[in-house]
Structure formats: C-alpha cells, structure tokens
Write a structure and sequence with these properties.
By secondary structure, the chain is mainly alpha-helical. Helix content is 65%, strand content 0%. The longest helix has 27 residues. It is globular.
C-alpha cells in the first residue's frame, strides 16, 4: 500500500485510505472483544477456583490456554503455600476444576506467582478476562511508548492495534494466557528510554524482565557492550532487589532451590512442546531428536553466531541506529534462548516498529509487514512436521534485519530499500 502525499483527505486531516483503515480496525477490534468476552462468559463449563469438584470435559475447548498454570500458582500464594509452589502434587491440586486433563507446570520465578495472586482471588473466568485485557493493554502501551520515536505508529495506531491483535503469535499469547505482550512492552520501554537518554528507566525495565531471564540477560549484556553504564547499574540493582525480597521470604538459597525444582519441568516441557519451539536449539532438537548430538552442535553454532552478531552491532552504537539494534535484540534473544515457544515470536512487533522507523508517511512499508503477518500464520499442511516453520521465519527475519542494518548503517534510507535493487534506485534518481 502506498499513499500519495496529494491524496484526498478527510475533515480531520486523514487520507481516505487512513480513514478507511481506521473504520476496518474498529470493526476488527470490536469483533475480537466480543469473541473474547463471549468465550470468557461461556468458559467451557469451568467454574471458579473453589469449584474443585467440577467434572472435566476433556473434549471441550479449554478456556485460557496456559492461563491455568498462572492462576493456579497465584492461588497457591493466596493459600500461603509459597514454600511448596513447585511441588507437582500442589500444582495439580491448585489447577483442579480448570478444565485440564492433567496439569500445566508453572516454572517461573516465585515473585511471578506473587504477581498473579490478585488475579487468582477472582473467579477463573473473570480472572482470565482481566488477564487478557491486561496483556492487550500491554501491547497497546508498547505502541504508545514507541509513538514519539516512530511517527508512523502514532498516525496508524488504531490499524496497528488491530493488526497486532490478529498477528498469530501475539494473538495466541494474549488469548492463551501467556505474557509475551509484556516482553514486547519491556523491549519498547528500553528502546524509548535509551532514545530519550533515560538509562535508569531502561535498566530498571531490563531488571524487571528477569521473569524471562533469557531476554533480560541479553538486553543487559548488550547495553553493557554499548556502554550504557547507568542502565546496567540500574538493571543489576533491580535484579538484586528482587533477589533480596524473595530471599527474605524463602531464604538465601531460593535461587538454586528454584533451579533444582523447575529443571525437570523445563526438560519435560522441552520434549512435549518441541514441535512449537522457535529457538535455534529447540528447533533442531524437535527436528532431529532431543538427544541428537548433531541437533546440539548445530543449535549451539547458530545461537553462537547470532550472539556474536548482536555483540558486533551493540558494541558500535554510533554506527548502527538504536531501532535497528533493538529489532536485532528482540529477534536474536528468541533464537539464542534455550527454549522459546511459537508465541514468543510476538517480539517481531519490535522489528516491525524498527522498519516503520525507517519509513515516512508517504510510503509506509505495509507490504513488508503484511509478508510477516501472513508468513507466521499456521499452515495445516505443515502440522505433521516435527518442528514449526515459525523457527525458520525467525532466522530469516534476523538475517534480513541484520543485512538491512549493515546496509543502512545510519544512512537516511527507508524500508523500501529492502525491495529495490541499486539499479532501480538509480532509475528513480534520474527520473
């Protein structure tokens, strides 16, 4: 879609195309809100957490996706059983009556369970709707945070909200009880804070993202390489404060105790969810087997190569634009993660924002964004494959982003350059 600067405009200054996109976006958002509200109301026959004797219909669709794991963890906190949070029998008990055939392991740090305690005080269906609204709000907040540094977001915010809500990885994360939208918001805040030279805010945000250590550690390490000393110090202080607060309750050995408790969960999840993994190592293990030495070597080589590339970009902050480096960080941190599921591809929102940052109002790169939106849709013909095609897309997206970043190198070019050859640009220049 290309918009001419001379296109007809509406009374409020929008082009006809922009006005039409906003009307469509409102309809899409309304339909999604109605669908989620109806699903929460029906709830597949699920009652609140006190309804532990409710029969489980394993054939009925389960409300909330992975949300029962978080809801159950919060209910354990409400019951004062933080010290047995990771015991399998206790998690099974906490998730009774939530429509599960078995249980979903909760393996996040203890303070995450504490954060979910207020939601666990609500009836399950109400809690799910509240959580869905919060995650949707996190995505909207990410767009708001980035609007001052990416002007196209401000002008196209409503359509971009609708696009995000229908973007497969993000839609599954929001509707499936996951928190990938918070990761998107975290990266957005770090980008904006570094842009505004508010390093402490960037560091505190990175420290708070330790609920997903693979992303937080990547962000902190790369900020260190780019010599954002205040940000790194703030991140370390925030992480230390979190550790200390938990240690006051669970003792100074809580970190190693947590690792020991969740390691079996993580290993089991890596096997069960291998077809959904989009990290380099997870994808290779899904394709060749968890115990395959070839999968281990190839996965580590790819992850190592991505890590070295990220280190190169971030060690040269004067050579490469912040938005481009943030896009590389968002995609790369998923690829190098020991384990990342398909909904973690929601971080591609940051890459999309970086592409928009390279554009102007008269030529939004919507064709490029549409390719990403469509490419990450589930493909029924690929359902029987041992690994997801989303992992390949993530690697391709990283390579394309790095190639474009090296080409741009702070040059005032637009995202259109991804599609045009040098000869095509010469023809335009002569014209």
């Amino acid at each position: 879609m290309e918009i001419s600067a001379s296109a007809a405009t509406t009374a409020d200054g929008l082009t006809n195309g922009e006005a039409r996109a906003r009307r469509i976006a409102r309809a899409v958002i309304f339909a999604l809100v109605l669908a989620v509200g109806l699903a929460g109301y029906i709830g597949a026959g699920i009652g609140d957490r006190a309804d532990t004797a409710a029969p489980i219909d394993t054939e009925a669709p389960r409300l909330g996706g992975d949300f029962p794991a978080f809801y159950g963890a919060g209910s354990i906190i409400l019951d004062g059983d933080l010290d047995v949070l990771y015991e399998e029998d206790r998690q099974i008990e906490a998730q009774l009556g939530l429509g599960l055939d078995g249980y979903l392991a909760f393996a996040y740090p203890p303070h995450v369970a504490v954060a979910y305690a207020p939601l666990a005080a609500l009836p399950f269906q109400v809690s799910y709707l509240a959580h869905t609204a919060l995650m949707a709000g996190a995505y909207i907040a990410a767009l708001a945070v980035l609007s001052p540094v990416v002007p196209l977001i401000a002008r196209w915010r409503l359509p971009l909200i609708a696009v995000g809500f229908t973007f497969y990885p993000l839609a599954v994360a929001i509707g499936g009880g996951q928190n990938a939208a918070l990761t998107v918001l975290g990266f957005a805040i770090i980008w904006r804070a570094l842009h505004d030279d508010r390093e402490v805010v960037a560091g505190v945000t990175a420290g708070l993202m330790m609920y997903r250590p693979q992303y937080a550690l990547a962000a902190i390490g790369l900020m260190f390489l780019s010599r954002h000393w205040k940000a790194v110090a703030a991140a370390i202080a925030t992480t230390a404060a979190t550790w200390l607060g938990t240690a006051l309750v669970l003792g100074t050995t809580w970190l190693t105790d947590w690792f020991d408790a969740v390691l079996p969960f993580v290993e089991r999840d890596a096997e069960v969810n291998a077809p959904n993994s989009i990290s380099a190592l997870g994808f290779m293990q899904a394709a060749l087997g968890v115990d395959s030495p070839v999968a281990l070597v190839v996965g580590l080589v790819v992850a190592g190569s991505v890590t070295i590339t990220l280190m190169y970009l971030w060690s040269r902050p004067q050579a490469f634009a912040l938005g481009d480096r943030m896009a590389a960080l968002a995609i790369g941190s998923v690829i190098i993660s020991p384990h990342a599921n398909f909904y973690d591809a929601a971080v591609l929102v940051i890459a999309g924002a970086a592409v928009l940052a390279r554009s102007d109002r008269t030529n939004p790169p919507f064709k490029l964004l549409a390719i990403g939106w469509v490419a990450l849709l589930p493909i029924p013909l690929l359902d029987d494959l041992p690994a997801t095609h989303l992992a390949i897309f993530m690697l391709v997206a990283f390579v394309v982003m790095i190639t474009a970043t090296l080409h741009w190198s702070n040059a005032p070019m637009t995202a259109r350059d991804l599609f045009e050859t040098a000869d095509e640009r010469k023809v335009e220049a002569h014209a």
